[in-house]
Amino acid sequence: MQEATTRLKRSEAQTVYSPNPETNLRSVMVLGATGLVGGECLRLLAEDDSVGRIVVLTRRRVGSLDAVPKVQQHVVDFDRLTAHARLFAVDQIFCALGTTQRKTPGKHRYRVIDFLYPITAAHLGIEKGASHYLVVSAVGASSRSLFFYNRLKGELEDALKALPYRSVTIIQPSVLKGERAEPRTSEKLAWKLAFLTPAKYKPVEGASVARALVLAARANQRGIRVIPNREIEAATPQ
Q1: Which of 112, 105, 158, 151 is nearest to 135 (CA)?
Q2: How many domains are there within the chain?
Q3: How does pLDDT run across 150-190, given as a tens digit for each residue?
Q4: How far is the C-alpha of 37 from the C-alpha of 178, rounded, in Å?
């Protein structure tokens, strides 16, 4: 697979991936469906006529998910994902897992959530026949970064690129804009200072990140695709 930084085009939104010749519908998994980006991915996928089944993994039962069309909610122990390997028998996996330093001050646990969970899910997807892995990374991600967070995201990107997926989509947003269940003071400050921020690092709507991922899943282009922060808004035609 060749790495390419690709801008999604409007025409790609009309391309529907139909791996199941019997149903003509995709099955997808969403990890991080209760978060800002994952929740919007879930909403868009539920409205997508090319999606027939949505598997959602959660730590605890989320009653509101039971009312979402096509959703099969499973409460799992993320520290024992391999025990739930059968659930990964889907066509595409959306991974929007992540934590914050405030919630997870210890670097070891941070690494477990931001690296080990996503890469374990990716391996299980390969084992069960998934062909496309889509992940939320971060602007500045690099395994050579001096910053722990960016280095961790870069290590995840490198590990995913080495797996034998037909398609891998990596999106690299900066600070996210949108309503969260738990507001983040640092994000609000970044929004206010956005007019001073270079395009590469400007805050981006969480909904735009989700739309770019859903469009990439529909286009389902072979190979590795990287969507940098500065291209996210342009990649999501209304």
Answers
A1: 158
A2: 1
A3: 999 999 999 999 999 999 999 999 989 866 455 545 544 44
A4: 9
